[in-house]
Amino acid sequence: MGFFDAALGSLLSPSSGPSVQPPIAQALETLLQQHDGIGGLVNQLSQGGLAGQVSSWIGTGQNQTVTGAEIAQALGSGSIGHIAQQLGINPQEAGALLAQVVPHLIDHLTPGGQLPANAAQVPQSDALISAVSAIATRLLR
After folding, report:
1. In this structure, are residues 101 and 28 in contact, taking their beta carbons and an 8 Å threshold?
2. Mind listing the domains of the chain with CATH numbers?
3. What is the pTM of this model?
């Protein structure tokens, strides 16, 4: 397991006990709050030049990749800086991490290739923990 995988694994794991959100779940919750839910996040990323990639993440086919720099540009330095600070990493690492996690998050929260009816709401903590668990399974295989 490489350094990035080890770092990702530590961010995906709860810091103490099953009722505690993993650090990345807390950061994703913050990201969704900043953008008024999955619908706002999708809109921000699409308007930030990632419309093609975002469509693939929502759709039922293969997810297109995105770079940390592309995510950072689409979300803005303030959002990335806040996530970096929350996770205790630098903004470049936060962008790279979000480039790995956000496509899976959007894919997970848009079952059947559709935004949910409550797209303007931030999912409950247990839904985010479930999403992070599914993401960890995909990324750390």
Report:
1. yes
2. 22-139 (1.10.10.690)
3. 0.81
Residue 139 is inside which H or E element, if any?
Answer: helix 125-139
Could you tell me the CA-to-CA distances from 138 to 67, 106, 133, 141 in Å, in that order?
Answer: 18, 14, 9, 6
Is the alpha carbon torsion for 42, 12, 128, 137 positive or negative?
positive
66's tokens: 């995105």
Q: Is the dihedral angle over the CA atoms 34, 39, 108, 63 positive or is it negative?
A: negative
The pLDDT of residue 100 is above 80: yes
Closest Cα to residue 75, out of 99, 58, 105?
99
Would you state the pLDDT for residue 21?
A: 63
